[in-house]
Amino acid sequence: MWGEDWPFSGIQTFAHLPHHKCLLDMEKKFDIGVIGVPFDTAVSYRPGARFGPQAIRKASQRQTSMRGFNFRADINPYQDWASVVDCGDVPVTPMDNSLALKMMTAAYNNLLSHNSKSDKSSLPPRFVTLGGDHSIILPALRALRKTYGRLAVIHFDSHLDTWAPSKYPNFWHSDASEFTHGSMLWIAHNEGLLTENNNVHAGLRTRLSGTDFNDYEDDETVGFHRIEADEIMEGGIQSIVEKIKSVIPSDVPVYISVDIDVLDPSAAPGTGTTEVGGWLTREMIRIIRELEDLNIVGADIVEVSPPYDPTEITALAGAQIAYELITNMVKKGPTDPEIVRRNLELSENLDENLKSFGLSDNSKVLLDTKHKEQVVLHP
Ligand SMILES: [Mn+2]
């Protein structure tokens, strides 16, 4: 009698989903968890994304399970086989980034220690993170790596985020200062979290360092392919989708990361590092819809920074993108354990090969020497 909410009533969980403090209740079973990570002290420009999870939840209020049918996908992700819940937030410290990284890594490990609710799945629940700045992908990938092996990453962003820490002003340097929202994919590569070659950036339009393409060359050593925002004008949406699918196999665990600055500032002004000339929300939605066959094991929407957007369109775009990603996860069904078994085996072999070259995972020994010498503590 009192259980049904209007879009404007009730406590603001994502899409009015049931709220469980998943990190506290280890017995809680679910299939897809939405989790907020309100952390923004690893940004290189404007902070504010710590308010992203609250803003995205607020912007999601017109999503309800009652009226949640996705006409583009032909399912209602909130009324299907999957138990989708709002796991609340990770209470990340804003005072100490080393501690914050530890906290976030522990939180994701905790999240992946749960059991799925559906008896069709033998794997842990999947999750969609509401960020937070983009650095939060590093702890997410660390945890996922243990469960699934190396991840194939689709990275929607106007920026590369594979920059070595030495590509920032770095005369004053510490270990913690290397962990930023522009270097975390470089760190992820060095920690052996990414596939060697099946990773792709989409929507790029950042200015590059120096006088040539050496940022792109570095990016290749981190294992990424690149799709620039402008490519949509030549081949349309379909060419973008085909290029993504040519890089990402259909039988590997995939992580999708959406930096909201992939959208044009006219569609998403509320973010820290805006770049003009980006995609529209409708194009982004269509691209995600075309990726519904992939095995998405985790995803995020990051860099939504409400202080710069009184119109709330940025958070609205974030909420819709989360809905589309959840739709993909539900539509695809539980992840096939055989895919995961194979990927773990492949990842172990790769780690063994690296060790035989005197390299090991979870270390920074892959550090590019060209950059290493620039990181000088005692000049
Ligand atoms: Mn980014």
UniProtKB/TrEMBL annotation:
<feature type="binding site">
    <location>
        <position position="161"/>
    </location>
    <ligand>
        <name>Mn(2+)</name>
    </ligand>
</feature>
<dbReference type="GO" id="GO:0008783">
    <property type="term" value="F:agmatinase activity"/>
</dbReference>
<feature type="binding site">
    <location>
        <position position="261"/>
    </location>
    <ligand>
        <name>Mn(2+)</name>
    </ligand>
</feature>
<feature type="binding site">
    <location>
        <position position="134"/>
    </location>
    <ligand>
        <name>Mn(2+)</name>
    </ligand>
</feature>
<feature type="binding site">
    <location>
        <position position="259"/>
    </location>
    <ligand>
        <name>Mn(2+)</name>
    </ligand>
</feature>
<dbReference type="InterPro" id="IPR005925">
    <property type="entry name" value="Agmatinase-rel"/>
</dbReference>
<dbReference type="Pfam" id="PF00491">
    <property type="entry name" value="Arginase"/>
</dbReference>
<feature type="binding site">
    <location>
        <position position="159"/>
    </location>
    <ligand>
        <name>Mn(2+)</name>
    </ligand>
</feature>
<dbReference type="InterPro" id="IPR006035">
    <property type="entry name" value="Ureohydrolase"/>
</dbReference>
<dbReference type="InterPro" id="IPR023696">
    <property type="entry name" value="Ureohydrolase_dom_sf"/>
</dbReference>
<keyword id="KW-0378">Hydrolase</keyword>
<keyword id="KW-0464">Manganese</keyword>
<comment type="similarity">
    <text>Belongs to the arginase family. Agmatinase subfamily.</text>
</comment>
<dbReference type="GO" id="GO:0033389">
    <property type="term" value="P:putrescine biosynthetic process from arginine, via agmatine"/>
</dbReference>
<protein>
    <submittedName>
        <fullName>WGS project CCBQ000000000 data, contig 00058</fullName>
    </submittedName>
</protein>
<dbReference type="InterPro" id="IPR020855">
    <property type="entry name" value="Ureohydrolase_Mn_BS"/>
</dbReference>
<feature type="binding site">
    <location>
        <position position="157"/>
    </location>
    <ligand>
        <name>Mn(2+)</name>
    </ligand>
</feature>
<keyword id="KW-0479">Metal-binding</keyword>
<dbReference type="GO" id="GO:0046872">
    <property type="term" value="F:metal ion binding"/>
</dbReference>
